Amino acid sequence: MNVGPLEGPDENGVLLPRGFASRIVARSGVPPVEGKPFAWHPAPDGGAAFPTPRGGWVYVSNSEMANGKGGVSALRFAADGKIVDAYSILDKTTFNCAGGATPWRTWLSCEEHPSGLVWECDPLGTQPARAWPALGAFVHEAVAIDLKRGHLYLTEDLPDGRWYRFTPARRASGGRLDLGTGQLEVARIVDESGHVTWHPIRDPSGRTEPTRYQVPDSTVFRGGEGCWFGHERVYFTTKGDWRVWSYDPVRQAVQVLYDGRARMNPVLTGVDNVIGAAAGEVLVAEDDGDMQIVAVNSEGLATPIVQVLNHPHSEVAGPSFTPDGKRLYFSSQRGATGQHEGGVTYEITGPF
Q1: Which of 28, 204, 215, 292 has its Cα between 20 and 30 A from that of 20?
Q2: pTM of the predicted model, to two decimals?
């Protein structure tokens, strides 16, 4: 990504490279569309953008709230960028943290608690959300799909969490994968070259034993966070050691692309959500860092591209490009107040 150093701040308190601009599109507790009562949710977290007819798009965002007060909301945009609607696509769930977009244009929202499930949501809100228990009940963080090989990869946000792969029993119609049945497996790194073997989980429900303990020699990944598939790789992050990982599904081998703990004055800390950029980098949002989104290239070089100032008790969450790659969305989960009700969702435009 050929961008210059961060400049600013702009009127929204955002540092950006020259040629870029920010816009606040939603605030927690405030209706995003004038004249419509629907208010944007608190604690905005993982998100993704999806195309709509006539050149518009929808940005969906999780709400990481406890005790059945979480869910997913959506902002619908016209082709000119005007917000034309806002609505809920999932409610009464708990700690909806990250998730992942499917190639068939639905959103998988992950619950981050011991019996948490993965919910498939329609960004347009025309179909009811549905849970897929076959993907396991555990402290879910994110999910990424390799449609070519028919696999889903899932992270677990615990200090002794694991990394999982789900293989559906069959493909459904319309290029979809059937998420109702299949095999959940857990990863084990078997050598210094990072080769991975996959071992079946006996009880994906975790009722008899938590999934992370069912294969005793499976590899611990310290606080699994974001997960994204692209450039023929699966990228995921672990916040316990500030690492960005890259997995080659053909070689079935994983390597560390970026290791923040091993660097003096690391640019990227508190790694969290991850997405890809058209130029080949991966973009990593920070939790407990400098409130930045940082681009990491294939050599592990980290370059900040966005920073939010004066939000010391928040985190950056939900980065996603529009389908044409010209706009980037993300949220400051707790905003300047440091409270869940202070969330702010931004749009960045510029020469990405």
Answers
A1: 28
A2: 0.97
